[in-house]
Structures are given as C-alpha cells and as structure tokens.
Prior knowledge:
It comes from Cebus imitator (Panamanian white-faced capuchin). The chain is of the alpha/beta class.
Amino acid sequence: MNDVKLAVLGGEGTGKSALTVRFLTKRFIGEYASNFDSVYNKHMCLERKQLNLEIYDSCSQTQKAKFSLTSELHWADGFVIVYDISDRSSFAFAKALIYRIRAPQTSHCKRAVDSAVFLVGNKRDLCHVREVGWEEGQKLALDNRCQFCELSAAEQSLEVEMMFIRIIKDILINVKLKEKRRPSGSKSMAKLINNVFGKRRKSV
Ligand SMILES: Nc1nc2c(ncn2[C@@H]2O[C@H](COP(=O)(O)OP(=O)(O)OP(=O)(O)O)[C@@H](O)[C@H]2O)c(=O)[nH]1
C-alpha cells in the first residue's frame, strides 16, 4: 500500500476547499468552513496500485500566520498551488509559495525540492474578469518544474479529477525513482564487499 500525502495551498478564497471537495465528492457546494485546516483521507486504486491518499486543505488564515511552511514541506509528497485567475494578488501569493517550495534551503526537508507541484489557476468560469493571463501561469509553472492547468471547481468536475490524478501519478513516479536510486541494504553490502575484495583479487 502506497501512502500519498498532498497539500493544497494558496491565497485566501482561491477555491482550495472547493477543489478538494469536488475531487472527493464530485460536488461543488459553494461555501466552505474556512477557519481551520482539514486533512481528508481517501482510499483509492490507481493503475492497479492501492493508495492511501491524504489531502491537507490549508486554511488561508493559518497559512498566513506561518508562511515558513516548514511542517507542510516536511509532510507532503506533492503540492497543489491554487490561485484565482480573477485575482492578481492570489497569483503573487502562489508564486511566493512555489519559490518557497523550490528554494535550495528547503533541500533538507523531506522531499520538497524534487516534489511534484501542480499550479492551478482556478475560477476559469470568471474569465470575463480575468486578471492573470494563461501564459503567465504557464510560464511560472515551466520556470519552476510544475505542471499547470486552468480550470473551474464550480463547473468542471472531470478536469478537477484529472488534475488530482496527474499529480498523484507524478508523486508515484518520484517515489519509484527514489527507490531505484537508493540501493537496498543487502545490495549495497554486496557492492561494498565486491569493491574491497574484488579489486584486491585482481591485483594479486
Ligand atoms: N466562480 C467560482 N467561484 C468559486 C470557484 N471555486 C470556488 N469558488 C468560490 O470561491 C469562494 C472561496 O472558495 P473556498 O473553496 O472556500 O476557497 P479557499 O481557498 O478554501 O478559502 P480559504 O480557506 O478561506 O482561503 C467560495 O465562495 C466558492 O464558492 C470557481 O471555480 N468558480
């Protein structure tokens, strides 16, 4: 069983809860309790693998109070960073979050520097009052090794589901790569013995 931990972060009122609840229930409720952080659990099967998914839906108020994000960076395997396409300040906040996640000094954290990040421009249904261009979102994502999409939690259930599935798949790929890079205990011992005795035998 794989454990996948996903943190949904972003500015106030960008739709973090709406996206999370849309993914978990396929419903758009409209108003969500917003003064506390929530962690949701979902058991799912993806590509014939059983997953135990945990989604941390951050509350903007607590997020502002502790922008260092240290505990999130240690906890999460991947991040969904949400901004509202009709609110430029939320894009600036998303940018700051991405820089924080990708900052070199974050490398001591569990998985932050290489972790999967999905930048989401939410509220696409409000494109008549758009303040952030699609190209700006795309560029920010490309420059910082993130995936990117614009969507509407209010109107696009399937797109929301596909976005979550894509980041979960990226997380699973990262986990696999890390496992490959880290030789198992017995293999590394065999390598060590081979290096010491193998080389000596040659020189006799
Ligand atoms: N038009 C539109 N409204 C949306 C969309 N997604 C969320 N909203 C609305 O935006 C408001 C904020 O949504 P939330 O999901 O509570 O946002 P949040 O980021 O979790 O909020 P905080 O935790 O308080 O920062 C609510 O009124 C939602 O109904 C969307 O795709 N389109």
